[in-house]
Amino acid sequence: MRETFAPWRTRVVGELWDFFRVEPEWRDRAVRRAYDACPKLITDMHYEARVQAVRTYYAKKLGRKIEKKAARTIWLAAEQYMQVIPWWCASHRDCWEYFVSRWCDPEWQKTHEACRQRRLKMPGPAHHQGNRTLDEYATRWSRAHEGRECPPLMAWAMAHKGKATSIEVDYNPEDPPEAYSNPTVHTRLSQYTEMGREKHGPEWNPSTEDLDGEIIMRAQLREEMEAKLQAQEAKYQAQLMEQQARYDARLQEQQAKMQEDLQRQMQFMFHQWHSGGMQPPPLPLPPVGTSSPSQGTPNISAGSNNQPVSPPAAWSPFPPYPRPPPM
């Protein structure tokens, strides 16, 4: 397959120079970059062609212009895709039909949506290097900042803050997590600095030293272990909550069953008493300190029953004993 593709790859790169020119001293580097970019462009072509087909269909068939961001979440039917075959695939209808069959495959759509949701979880862009290497970013930053030196760690940190040509982009070890495009960058820098000073001493400055592969590996292992511990803790917490929920549900079920059994027994007892001519037991006496329920006095008319009685006076002006005679 590689031998079959090689002539076409050479032809594509060769036709590139029909539209662009490059300085002789940069030609080898440009050719190498073109060969590196072609596989990525071919991979992205399958996704970008679908987005462009959606935009073309909305513009030509519905008279509406939509942005790429909105088009990425819109899915057309197979016959709608076939109405907007691009010019570069017009003579290869079978290739376009293959694209359409993949886009309309539910399994492919499910995988595509899962990958998109995973990318959306990123709090910010991965970096601001573009297609440049870290060394090229450092060189470009130095050129834009009056020739200042840019060690690898500084370049890596600033590549997660902004473009190399931006005057506002500079390295400051006191920057908060919000200064970076991704807050995890601040965490990684802090871990690297902490472990580096444990190894080289408290005066070690990571921004002026070369990257230490051993520290990077240890920091990565620590980060992975912390992530695993957090995942295990979350798993155990979820299991504990699930067990507690099952226990509460079982307890409620037992209480409801006991209440139902008690109610059934009471109904059975009252039925037995009623069928046997027996009177149900009297109501229980009220607890000490509470008022007794109001009951009528037998053999007394209703008009004279339950009349309010005045409470006895707490003090009487008459003495309980007769006064002695005066002397």
Automatic annotation (TrEMBL):
From the UniProt entry, list the residue stretches annotated as the region Disordered: 275-327
List the coiled-coil residues.
Answer: 222-257
Q: Which GO terms describe its biological process?
A: transposition
- Keyword DNA-binding present in the record's keywords: the answer is no
What are the Polar residues biased-composition ranges? 289-307
Q: InterPro entries annotated for this entry?
A: EN-1/SPM (IPR039266)
Residue spans with biased composition (Pro residues)? Answer: 317-327
Question: What is the name of this protein?
Answer: Uncharacterized protein
Source organism per UniProt: Eragrostis curvula (weeping love grass)
Q: What is the lineage of its organism?
A: Eukaryota, Viridiplantae, Streptophyta, Embryophyta, Tracheophyta
